[in-house]
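Lab notebook, bench 4. The sequencing result for the construct came back, and we need a structural model before the next group meeting so we can plan mutations. Quick request posted to the team channel:

Model the 3D structure of this chain.
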Amino acid sequence: MLIQPKRSTISSRKEVDIYRTFKFGKDLQKSFTAIPIMAANMGTTGTPKMAEALSKLGYMCALEKHTSLADLQALLEKLQRDAAADGKLACTYAQRVFPTIGINDSFDTVLALSKSFLISGFVIDIANGYMMKLVEKVKEARKLFPEMFIIVGNVVTADMTTDLVLAGADCVKIGIGSGSSCLTRMKTGVGRPQLSTIIECADAAH
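Done. Here's the predicted structure in token form:
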């Protein structure tokens, strides 16, 4: 794959800013700023240690859904202290960290964290995002948390991206079977190349 260049108004690559401001909530009054790259909530990547490192560098991290409430609280407390020590708003780093729940999980962890910490939102995750139960879970989440940034996944096509956005998702997590260490495609025959997926799903979301 090669990327075709386009005309640009910048005069130096030093002027490039890869941070983005994500607006959400009623009338888009709430926001957080981050680099739009997120570590997935897999057991080897969505760890508290990874979340701490990435959030301080500007990236986002979806925590593995079996991360305990105690570990989540300890992580968020540390990030708030570190942000204050670095001269930033206490919520700066914590807002880039997203706890994860499955479609059969309750919202208890999210409720507990939202009462004590300035988290931006959370992830609803399932390996196969084509179960209609996921759409219903998103609708339920949106009613319970109208002011939170809700990330939902995983899907690889425009139709399900559209369904999840209309159900209330702020962000749709893309990718099934495309990673070199992912066994989904090999074991189930399900998957799609990531670039094709991103192009199609982004177009649907926009």
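The longest strand covers residues 149-155.
Will bring this to the meeting.
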